[in-house]
Amino acid sequence: MHTSHLEPESLTRVLIIQPVIPGYTVGLFDALAALPNLEVRVIASPRVSGAPATVENLPSWADSGHRCWEALGGTVFLQKGLKIPESWSPGDVVCVSGAPRFLSNIPVL
């Protein structure tokens, strides 16, 4: 008798690194987090000069505790503690803000 074993559907993890989490992005991240087989985490700073503040009381997908330091009069920024979780593996996804003035994105890449 032949028994087939179905592979469990794999979980894809998505880490999104942003300067802040403004209110107009929450619906998108909620929708992504609700998708089956997708684990979404969004990390950001509570506030960055020149940007709207991060929304308060965010769902569990959000981590807004990464303080942001400014240098050179606000022309470059460094978000503290950004890193890819050690448990992540090939197939997981990291999305970073396209703002080249966030120097903290460089080591993550």
What does this structure look like?
The longest helix has 11 residues, at 23-33. This protein is α/β, with parallel strands linked by helices and 109 residues long. The chain is globular and about 45 Å long. The model is unreliable at 1-8 (pLDDT under 50). Strand 4 and strand 5 (76-79) form a beta hairpin. The strands form 2 sheets. The protein has a 4-stranded parallel sheet, with helices on one face. A two-stranded antiparallel ribbon has the order 4-5. Helix content is 14%, strand content 24%. The chain contains 2 helices and 6 strands, in the order βαβββββα.
Task: Tell me briefly what this model is.
This protein is of the alpha/beta class.
Task: Please describe the structure with a list of short key phrases separated by commas or semicolons.
4-stranded parallel β-sheet, single chain, 109 residues, two-stranded antiparallel sheet, 6 strands, alpha/beta
